[in-house]
Design a protein that fits this description.
The protein has 438 residues and is of the alpha/beta class. It has 4 domains: 128 residues, Response regulator (Rossmann fold), CATH 3.40.50; 165 residues, 3-Layer(aba) Sandwich (Rossmann fold), CATH 3.40.50; 69 residues, Helicase, Ruva Protein, domain 3 (Orthogonal Bundle); 48 residues, Arc Repressor Mutant, subunit A (Orthogonal Bundle). Helices cover 47% and strands 13% of the residues. Helix 5 crosses helix 7, helix 10 packs across helix 12 and helix 18 crosses helix 19. The chain is globular. The N and C termini lie far apart (74 Å). It comes from Flavobacterium pectinovorum. It holds the Pfam family Sigma54_activat.
């Protein structure tokens, strides 16, 4: 008997199988939710706290693998069990890779079902620990030993167990989403959904229906009501990346969410209560946007209850060696190149480089160099755009604009003034290159 009656979602297009599973689970003292399609299952997941997902792999509308992938992304702590009447090694491997902890082949007995559930429960603890480790290792994306890094970690620890709004500001590649995930998965609400939304990645005519949902008939093609990202994140965290791109109309609706703790679906006049933590992020200067009138002042202060600024890598160079070692360890293991070393001259060049793409760029460079090397990362393994790096001159202070211009001119000279090739080496487009040398 369970001390706590847990909720199990069972998904199968065969109603006889659904009823059989329900009877077995009831005898094990579980409460069940049934769904005969992936869309039904998604609605159940979004509206209820589910402790175990059992799904068939062969479902007509969308296959069970896609459901597993969705659940793994949005509910990573949820144990998942698959059942199938058409067993194949390939399908089972795909399911396990997509997040399933165990599998059953039809037909099966009540005892086999119970054993599979127990196996999933036993595996849940390591999975939970792994998720929390990942949240900590996400600091590896912004990891370090600098005072700035330690201050950042202290702020994260102070906010992870409450639902105050957080605004994360910083350049691209400095780990803003990793910080948001660390706050969520290390905190008291880690078993609830974490929904990430890139505000600039959704067309303006769709973003309100995506965020707030819509009712049937709200617009052409709205054949049924759907919840949006906010309700999908109910009880957990919604991460609004690139919040500075939000239109003034959307800003007004977001302000109401923060003020009233409720949303109204597109096409509806009925507000619905909402319990969700909002973490927003931007690489824009929102305060300056407020001064210009392009971002609402009241929304800015509602979002900015806790402010976290991610420092660019060029301002915490003492962290580069720490990051370098972590990424070498990570990718040498992933790429099956254990014991790989790095030439000290390569390290010197990496320390001199200004890293405009920040930690993300450093990680990509390390991964690239490990792929291209054998036992030791040598000078010839350095990507082209780093080879043309100009070392910093002692005793001279230059603006970033002057520094970039010198860098571009040196690369242009090396490629016989071929702007297309220079832009490729510098990883910028040709238009940006022209603007920077004007």
């Amino acid at each position: 008997m369970n001390l706590k009656k847990e909720n199990v979602l069972i998904v199968d297009d065969n109603y006889d199988m659904l009823n059989l599973l329900q009877r077995h689970l009831k005898s094990f003292d579980y409460y069940t939710y049934k769904a005969s399609s992936v869309n039904e299952a998604l609605d159940v997941l979004k509206h209820n706290t589910i402790d175990l997902l059992i799904t068939d792999l062969n479902i007509p509308d969308i296959n069970g693998i896609e459901l597993l992938k969705y659940a793994e992304e949005h509910y990573p702590l949820l144990p998942k069990l698959i059942i199938t009447g058409l067993p194949s090694i390939e399908n089972v491997v795909r399911a396990i890779k997509s997040g399933a902890l165990d599998y059953l082949i039809k037909p099966f007995t009540a005892e086999e079902l119970q054993k599979a559930i127990q196996n999933s429960s036993q595996k849940r603890k390591p999975i939970v620990e792994n998720i929390h480790d990942k949240a900590e290792n996400n600091y590896a994306g912004i990891t370090g030993c600098s005072k700035k890094f330690k201050n950042l970690v202290e702020i994260i620890k102070r906010v992870e167990n409450n639902k105050v709004s957080v605004l994360i500001e910083g350049e691209s590649g400095t780990g803003k989403e990793l910080i948001a995930k660390a706050i969520h998965f290390k905190g008291a609400f880690s078993n609830m959904p974490f929904i990430s939304v890139n505000c600039s990645g959704i067309p303006e005519n769709l973003i309100e229906s995506e965020l707030f949902g819509y009712v049937k008939g709200a617009f052409t093609g709205a054949g049924e009501s759907r919840i949006g990202f906010f309700q999908a994140a109910s009880g957990g965290t919604i991460f609004l990346d690139e919040i500075g791109t939000a239109s003034l109309a959307l800003q007004t609706r977001l302000l109401r969410v923060l003020q009233e703790k409720e949303i109204t679906k597109v096409g509806s006049r009925t507000p619905e209560k909402l319990d969700v933590r909002i973490i927003a992020a931007t690489n824009d200067d929102l305060f300056q946007m407020v001064q210009k009138g392009t971002f609402r002042e009241d929304l800015y202060y509602r979002l900015n209850v806790i402010n976290i600024k991610t420092e660019p890598l060029r301002e915490r160079k003492e962290d580069i060696i720490h990051l370098l070692n972590n990424f070498i360890k990570k990718y040498s293991a992933e790429l099956n190149k254990p014991g790989i070393t790095i030439n000290s001259k390569v390290t010197e060049i990496l320390l001199r480089y200004s890293w405009p793409g920040n930690v993300r760029e450093l990680e990509n460079v390390i991964q690239n160099m490990i792929v291209m090397s054998d036992d030791t990362i040598e000078l010839q393994h350095i990507p082209e755009h780093l080879k043309y790096h100009i070392p910093e001159q002692k005793g001279t202070l230059k603006s970033l604009k002057e520094y970039e211009k010198e860098q571009i001119i040196k690369v242009l000279a090396a490629v016989n003034n071929n702007k297309t090739k220079a832009a490729q080496i510098l990883q910028i487009d040709r238009k940006t290159l022209n603007q920077k040398i004007m």
